[in-house]
Amino acid sequence: MAVDPELAAMMLDVAVYKPRASLNGYGEDSFGAAVTVVCRVESELRMVRNMEGQEVVSGTTIYTDRIYGIAVSGQLTLPDGRIPHIISVATHRDDVGDSHEVVYVA
User: What are the Cα distances from residue 72, in Å, to 3, 5, 10, 60, 96?
Assistant: First the structure.
């Protein structure tokens, strides 16, 4: 299920997401195939909880147009070329089911 069409019309940005595939021999992340993510990127300071439950400040929020399966361990390249640290990902539901993801990054 996708996000409401009125909200989708506001999603004019495109980001690139790569899921973490494994660690290489040096302990560095390696990533899988890139997925194009239609989204809305908003710069806003917001206090969110990371995966360990600690409160941290997110400087950017990304609203996706559908469920992409974005994970904290993955790599997200924003339209301006930045590759920020993914703090947390929330899946939003509507009356039909999962609708879209909201990604908080530092």
Answer: 21, 27, 25, 14, 25
Hey, how many other C-beta atoms are within 10 angstroms of the C-beta on 22?
9
For the stretch 56-67, pLDDT in tens is 999 999 999 999
**pLDDT for residue 1:** 60
The topology under which CATH files domain 5-105 is Thrombin, subunit H (2.40.10)
Secondary structure (H, E, C), 41-77:
EEEEEEEEECCCCCEEEEEEEEEECCCCCCCCCCEEE
Q: The whole model's pTM is what? A: 0.90
